[in-house]
Amino acid sequence: MTEGDRGALAESLRRNPTLVFENTPEKQALLDRVTVSELAIPTRHGDCRAMLVVPPGADENAPLFINFHGGGFVRGYEVRDTIFCADIALRTGAKVLDVDYRLAPEHRFPVAFEECYDLCAWAFANGAILGIDAGRIAIGGHSAGGNLTAAITLRANQTGDFVPVLQVLDYPFLDAATDPADKTPGLEDEVLPYERMRAFNKLILRSPEDALNPYLSVVRADPADLPGMPPAVVLVAAKDPLAGEALRYAQMLVEAGVDVRLRKFLNSRHGFVTNGLEEAADARSLIVAALTGAFRPAG
């Protein structure tokens, strides 16, 4: 595939979403209740754009949730992501950093992983700048953002660079090596059809070997690297072709002795949480409860 072909495929994926977010007055009201400022955070790939979402009354010792959006590493940040972050901020009292990371095919693996890892390391080292308690930072993401969350947490567990208090994996993409049709056989959904997933993979990978890298296919991580990982919340949509790999990784974490809270939403499809569809209200309440508990000061 030529660079021109990659660019054309990416443009098609970006112009033709399978879910269209409807920004209702109720959703917009969430944004109107928070303060959103744009930051440029230094990383090895240059400054990373991120929105800092601050709820009313947040002080300089607030906890922080770092959110990574979905989109197959190809489709970018949208207002729905900041609306989701505003909801989380208002219900937990935490500040939320909504990350607009670099996209494929312009920036293929491992650029987004490295950029987001550096951003997390910066946040842990610069609590005073963000006005947060660096001992109470959680990270999470949706789909491709769930992949980034799992990979970052894995790498941090290996290096000891930082320790999130919680990882939130929302219908995560965790296996780039298995063909989509073989992931959860017989389960193809119009939100995430097989050919769309194959297209995302073509744009992410530099070579077939990348698909085997545990920082992209986290289900291929060495089990010896998993003990000591922070607690995890794993949200699975039963109608999602990615359900199988999320369940598999949750089981890997459990076998490693990690505290895992797993919930399978039987009536939901991929993308339901950030788009506010189906069982999104229950899923968001689960995330809020887990974050509230993780942010509670020890003692």
From TrEMBL:
Gene3D superfamilies: alpha/beta hydrolase. Residues 66-273 form the Alpha/beta hydrolase fold-3 domain. InterPro entries: AB_hydrolase_3 (IPR013094), AB_hydrolase_fold (IPR029058). GO terms for biological process: triglyceride catabolic process. Pfam families: Abhydrolase_3. One of its GO terms (molecular function) is sterol ester esterase activity. GO terms for cellular component: cytosol. This is Esterase.
